Sequence to fold (189 residues):
Amino acid sequence: MDLNRNNILAVGLRNGTVSMYDANTLNGLKKISNHKNPDKDVISAVKFSPDGTMLAIAYCPPISQVYLYDVSGEKVKKLGDCKGSSTRIVSIDFSMSGDNLLSTSIEPLFYKTPNCSRAYVTAVKGEQWATMNSKYTWFTQGIWPPCSDGTDINFVDRSNSKRYLATADDFSKVKIFRYPVCNKRQLYN
Fold:
């Protein structure tokens, strides 16, 4: 589920459909149903671009890719398929400009929008991200506890002020870090 700056709410449903609603009235606006197998094409993440004109939708295996749509007009237009993930995509982030997309499964994968061409890490290093939900970035290196196997952190979210990062882990703990979290064993509240 994601809410854009125009108060449009996008909700991913178990059957692989994304419904868009006016967040003020909850009136249905648009539906995106581009799945081939509604029993297995479960959505794992949805995210609007910073300007609200694009919507990225991540599907679970066996698809394991992000579909990018233009949702700015009356009709929804598919822009591209961001391919390359080998497992379930758990988060999507856009750069501040909306020109880059980061999808995270067991590894971060970067794409240029709107055509979903792969981008090298060096091309996006130093990029300013509108959101930060990826647990595998330069800015989140210090969130991992000692002896972690890389699966202990379940959720990451950066504050709108870009000053704090919250994590939720397997040990039922929510930790608040100062952002960026670049040092190993960085202090938290």
